[in-house]
Design a protein that fits this description.
heterodimer, A: alpha/beta, Rossmann fold, five-stranded parallel β-sheet, four-stranded parallel β-sheet, 9 strands, globular, B: alpha/beta, 5 helices, 28% strand
Chain lengths: 312, 187
Amino acid sequence: MAWTRKDLVTIRDLDASEITLLVDTAASLQEIATREIKKVPALRGKTIVNLFYEPSTRTRTSFEIAGKWLSADVINFSVNGSSAAKGESLVDTAKNIEAMSPDVVVVRHGSAGAAELLARELGCAIVNAGDGAHEHPTQALLDLLTIRERKGHFEGLHVAIVGDIAHSRVARSNLHGMRKLGMTVTVAGPPTLIPPFVQELGAKVSYRLEDAIRDVDVIMMLRLQQERMTRGLIPSLREYSRYWGLSLEKLAAHARPDVLIMHPGPVNRGVELSPEVADGPYSVILDQVAKGVAVRMGVLVLLAGRKAEGAA
Amino acid sequence: MSTPASRLREKAQVLDEAGLDRALTRIAHEILERNAGAADLAFIGLRTRGVTLAQRLTAKIAKIDGAVLPVGALDITLYRDDLDMRGVPVIRGTDITFAIKGKTVVLVDDVLFTGRTIRAALDAIVDLGRPRMIQLATLVDRGHRELPIRPDYIGKNLPTSRRETVSVRLREHDGEDRVVIEEPEDA
């Protein structure tokens, strides 16, 4: 099958075959990272703009490397020092950027729906690199690629997503993707951090870490998003860490010996993950980062290389 | 990816199973003759059927000469110059585990047509290393070149019209070994 969408805004909109196409494409591009000359000409002459309204190191760098390995010109436009700080609206900024004829705009914004808005307003391809607590599709895709490479398949796997579900676009995108691919998902965390929608999306809910991680194939620990917590949703960091932090002792006592530990980063060491777990043999955190570049190359190739309107 | 064209019907058989095998045997001998043996030879097949043909050629060379030669698989999607016109096909990835530097690379494809695929393949190979030489083997040369590219080994020269399609069917993918010319049903 061929990719037909102009944009990649959510995982929710995609069907299983589209998700599989994205994961397969990324898998086949991983080989480029092992080459001596890490460059292919696929997107020569294409322009990619990274439009980031929120701080990001990993994701922005990952898109930048992906674009450059594909020979595209990548321009970073971050909100600090730009006219957005002077009060220009998102759509106005984006239209100004569009006037410079980019082929793809990668957008990260603190508000849910920002990418959707730009996808509607702009003619070029939009990639959602995270919009508020809504979705982060490329993160879910790289998580899925990591899981499939380690476990060999999707169907029938059981994943526990643990922590701050309410503020997590990573959890939401993964939940949509995993359910569509036939996986079982248990979300776990303090009741204040578990939003009601998760059950509608087909997730099981657990309020005890020890129960949630029993017999699962993958444990995805989320970052406690302190910058998004405006109210006192947890009593204290220490208490959170005690009940919801993953330590070697809890792993050994409750999890399967072949479990994968994932984390979208950045890790709050000693809060959601003990350092021994983050750096331990179950952890695939750095592999996730490496796969991020392949996933973003795949997304950029499929969007920027999409058949031009009206072409024969 | 492709426009919904009319269905194809078989017009003529070009090679049957024995003919296809004889053509590959001859090419294997020609490769050994041209290169005075199998030293420093490496094969790269273009996905998908070029890889299968490369594997068959190296199996024949192993029988003739005893040499076990490496075979790599090349996906040239990322090197195409017509992605905007065709859309991105499924990318199946490049898998070349041997060092290309200093090797005589025999590039294998099933059908040679405009030459644009080979142009892309040459760019892709050069990005992976600096071979001593690249030679081109194709099972069918159907003409209509748009670039100055010429094969070194040809299974069958086949004059065709542009609206015809040459279909190389191999046991591993299609359950049979033969080459046919197809034309649109509405012709």
